[in-house]
Amino acid sequence: MGTSEPKTSNVVDVLYPVGKILTLDANIAGDSSDQQKTIQLKIKRQQLPYTLSSGSVVEEVSDFLDKTEGNVQFLKMFDRRAAVDLRDEKRADPWSENNDNEYAKGVQSGKVATFSEQLHWNVPYYVEDGDSDWDEAEDEAFIDDEERKLYEAEIAVYDRLKEYQGICIPKILATVKLDIPPPNAALTAQQRELHQQKGLLLQYLPGPTIQEMIVETPDAPWRNIVDQALKIVSILGDHDVLNKDMRLENLITLGYPDSATQANLLRIGDGRRATAMKKGSWDS
Questions:
Q1: Is residue 281 part of a domain?
Q2: What Cα–Cα distance (Å) separates residue 189 from each residue in 26, 108, 177, 192?
Q3: What angle do CA 23, 26, 32 make, to 5 degrees?
Q4: pTM to 2 decimals?
Q5: Which of 4, 53, 176, 260 has the highest Cβ tally under 10 A?
Q6: ∠ at Cα 250 (249, 256), nearest 5°?
Q7: pLDDT at 265
Q8: pLDDT digits (tens, 9 = 90+) for 94-146
Q9: Is the peptide bond prior to 257 cis by the omega test (within 30 degrees of 0)?
Q10: Are 161 and 169 in contact (CB under 8 A)?
Q11: Per DSSP, what are the bridge partners of residue 252?
Q12: Which range of residues forms the domain containing residue 237?
């Protein structure tokens, strides 16, 4: 995999710039038909920095979502291109259009599908033995595979914490897919799937993060906020959830300056403990 130092990238402004309208395939939560619908979301604001996933405040410009809580949502994409922290952690080069072109060539030749299959059969040994010799297409395939696993793990966590959605974690409004195939390419269904980026459309929590409040609002009711944050940590632990992304900037405060100010968890990542696994093992 790449060994260069992390570089400043225009990934934010290229992939999810403010004002861009995204067209996504969505499975709407609570829709009994279980059929995908095409929705359009306009990006209002980016949630920075990008970490294991990208985050954007969006509004729906189509008309499929329940608007009882307003028309502002939070879009979390498990997009290999925007996985800044994951790329750094896995020693992969920052995303570039050149990397994308090499990945597209690898998808069309069948190289990426073969590589992904080898990853799944022998993950620890294949990664340790092969990563230093991987080319750009293989790097991208590995990051894409990791992002898909993170997405599946997060879906499992939200399902496990279903009773707390809308209380101390956001509600899931829809699961979404973004197609990013190369232009003018004739792709099979399997190849097209390798160009899909998956994500979650979540309830928007309109409040400052705890990190922001430390700086901007030192007289906040901190005891209540901290108690609420500890309650969230306890709930995650009680449900065997490992949250790798538990940071102050991922805890949103709602209700300030009301005395009932509470903390809500904005981001969950990147896994949960499988009950069938022995203690100390994690499914991520």
A1: no
A2: 18, 11, 14, 5
A3: 150
A4: 0.82
A5: 53
A6: 75
A7: 61
A8: 999 999 999 999 999 999 999 999 888 765 554 555 456 889 999 999 999 99
A9: yes
A10: yes
A11: 209, 264
A12: 210-272
